Amino acid sequence: PALNLRMMAFDTARAVFRAAKAINAGAFIFEIARSEIGYTDQRPAEYASSILAAAIAEGYTGPVFIQGDHFQVSAKRYADNPDIELKTLHELIQESIAAGFYNIDIDTSTLVDISQPTVAEQQALNCALSASLSQYIRANQPEGLTISIGGEIGEVGGHNSTEEELRAYMDGYQVALQDLSPEAVGLSKISIQTGTSHGGVVLPDGSIAQVNVDFTTLLNLSRIARSSFRMGGAVQHGASTLPEDAFNKFVESTAIEVHLATNFQNMVYDRLPVNLKASMYAYLDKKSASERKPGMTDEQFYYKTRKNAIGPFKSQVWHLPGDLKSAITQDLENQFTRLFNSLGVANTRPYVDQTIRPNTVPPS
Questions:
Q1: Could you give the 3-state DSSP secondary structure of residue 346?
Q2: Distance (Å) of CA 247 to CA 213, 244, 252
Q3: Contact between residue 7 and residue 40 where contact means Cβ atoms under 8 Å apart
Q4: Which helix (H) or strand (E) covers residue 66, if one does?
Q5: Torsion-angle region of 332 (φ positive above 0: left; ψ -120 to 50: alpha; else: beta)
Q6: pLDDT score recorded for residue 357
Q7: In angstroms, what CA-CA distances link 257 with 73, 328, 345?
Q8: Shortest CA distance to 156 belongs to which of 91, 98, 214?
Q9: With helix as H, strand as E and coil as C, how does 96-154 read?
């Protein structure tokens, strides 16, 4: 499980560590995406501080994994000025490494060009930029530490990924990285598309549409990632709004990582005081009005845009009454416990201890 904590990061992380300690779990990740850093108003140093402070508060000892999720190249900004867009991403990578993000998911899949005649040509720019950003990470990682890097072959919400796409991307990536830095370590995992979308698809009544996940694709591409390219496997995005009985299928399909975000946000929003939520929605009516499409119901509009109110109202949510905050985090802890058990991370602490060797990184 890779957990994006958009709201109440410190308190929510405490719930994660309580759930993990109760089942002796060690294999779990805290992450935040480039887009989330913006709309939740959490820079990498703040996010890492919240997570590590939560570990201390709960008496958790051992490795804590913090990840940059979807460090993504914007196709529009890249088209306007590629140098500025890449410089911005370089600065974010530097800032994140300094904060203790030692897992970074590169996402240049936004630049896959399906108008090209062959899959290799479609993936060419994705390969080249993934390799370039990998080399940049390797040049800036702390001495004695190898940052885990992930790549992506298909934008979440698009068509399901194929074996041909995976092989074309990895072949092109490896050639490009070899040209840039022959000694550089490559990718540890690959993100694919299996039918999900970030946040789910909300229906006019506010409910979430049922999604059919292509577990066969997930299993097949995970196996190829391991057997042909020595990676850990494939990564599943956009999973948190799926039915809970689906999560054990990710284990059966040998996914290496499952990204979970929106449902935790939903659980907090559903429990906010009425007046606070009304203020947040009034803010959205004004600031996000351009995102209201013709025919969109209020339920669809607020569900789609309410992430945009997280940053501006961060202080108010942080200072919720203690009894309400305790009730919210207890519900979250119960959710984390169910997810951790479904995803098979109970009693994974011994494997983490066997694998991870502490590395002292002096502050920069």
A1: coil
A2: 11, 6, 9
A3: yes
A4: strand 65-72
A5: alpha
A6: 86
A7: 22, 26, 11
A8: 214
A9: HHHHCCCEEEEECHHHCCCCCCCHHHHHHHHHHHHHHHHHHHHHHCCCCCCCEEEEECC
Q: Report the distance separating Cα 251 and Cα 259, nearest Å.
A: 13
205 secondary structure, DSSP code: T
Give the integer Cα–Cα distance in Å for 138 and 184: 7
**Assigned token pair, 197:** 């979308």
Q: Are 181 and 137 in contact (CB under 8 A)?
A: no
Q: Furthest-apart CA pair in the chain: how many Å?
A: 59
User: Tokens 């983490």 — which residue?
Assistant: 352
Q: What is the pTM of this model?
A: 0.93
Instruction: Note the pLDDT of residue 60.
Output: 97
Distance CA 147, CA 187 (A): 10
Asked if residue 203 has pLDDT above 70, the reply is no
